[in-house]
Write a structure and sequence with these properties.
With 510 residues, the protein is α+β, with helices and mostly antiparallel strands. It contains 15 helices and 23 strands.
Length: 510
Amino acid sequence: MKTIKLFFTLAFFTTTALAQSHNHSYQYTIDLLNIQDDQVTVSFSPPKNKLEQGKFVIPKMVPGYYDAMNFGQYISDFSAFDKTGKKILTERLDQNSWMVHDLKNVAKISYQVADGWDSLQQNTRGAKSAASTFIQDSVFVINYNSLAGYFQEMNNLPYKINIKKNKDFYASSALNYILKNDSTDIFSVKNYRELVDAPVLYCIPDTTWIKVGNAEILISFYNKEERHYSKKIADELETILKNQQSYLGGKLPVDKYAFLIYYESSKENGLMGDGLEHAQSTVCLYNSSSINYLPNALISVASHEFFHIVTPLNIHSKEIENYDFLNPTLSKHLWLYEGMTEYATIHMPIKQKMISLKEFARKIEEKTHGMEAFDNKLSFTNLSKNAVERQDQYMNFYQKGALLGLCLDIKLRELSDGKIGTQELVQRLMKKYGKGKYFNDDALFDEIAAMTFPKIRTFFTDYMEGGDPIPLKECLAKVGFEYDETTKKINLINNPNAQQLALRKAWINQ
């Protein structure tokens, strides 16, 4: 009798917990089976509430892109219904938001979502497709920021997603998708930020798993003609990922990561690519006349995007931690998020002895030539805060930003007798501001000076906050390189002294 009573008690609490979970989460259904005119039908039940009205939002911007994407432009036929099927009044406020009246009685909301791009061969606003959704019978590249939204009044609640899909399709993602039945996948996330941070590639699977240190790495590939190609890409990526692990101190800050790669064949010569990083995955889109271009191109992009697991995904400011998808406030530290990430991408291969000194010098030269296309007197912190308005200057974070990272690395090595560089700085920042934490945007430079050397504060004052000419010639000379500011050529100094050799050894292990 006691056993029966316990059973019913447990059943009661389990049923109650499930009901409460259902009532206090967004319950979404996304239909990938019944596509009409390249549009997906999306519907959801809002969380239980007592609101007279609510503002529903689809993102204007997403982390990683510093431009207005306006994902609401792809939404149509937005409608709300009560439990009897009667329509409830909704108003479209602007491109990315709707007012839903009598929200407490809304049982269901539905709408149509068009794809953000039809082909990588078309002009897609600078190929900014990796944040959008691609819809086709044989493949879906899904970013949930273009499919799902949230009410501003209920913006930190869980999501439960049902995906209706082809029975042969596999969900490649860093999330754990559960097969409910042959044509339905389900998964849950704790909030909207986590949902947007986890894209998925749906198609007949061409996947390979590799183990790198503590991390399980998924490589998922799609091309209409080419099958069984993920293994080749995985073999190419494995070497660079192992070197990145070593570069990051021997342990990766993730346990699972997914590379989602869409490749489109083209008759045009050359290669076009786009990528967007996430906490545990990267979306990579490519278009070229030959798949032979892909491995080398992918390694470059994948390396950069993978390094984003450090910045900004593990080290970031309050503006990124509490990201406003409709009206974001930008951080002033793009020098860290993009510049230092790009620097790590070119520094890691020489530090890990994957390339020669001459090859490394050529990579630095490419950055010096690249920054000539921009206004190098601008304050990087001001430019970062106004990145949306100054798209004409944004790409300089990958050019001058990487070179500022190089100079900062050498300056730190010099001040510490070779013991501390940007690698060690990043480890210290990760320890203090890891996942779920954030730094004060205005205090970061002082924090770095406090955890390294007070003298380094003037570097940030002069070159990040100010627009002083980058001290590249001076810094390279300290490590035995000669930089000609006229020709932009970089060569090794003949007969470098012991101090230069020691600092170079500490800097690039050469």
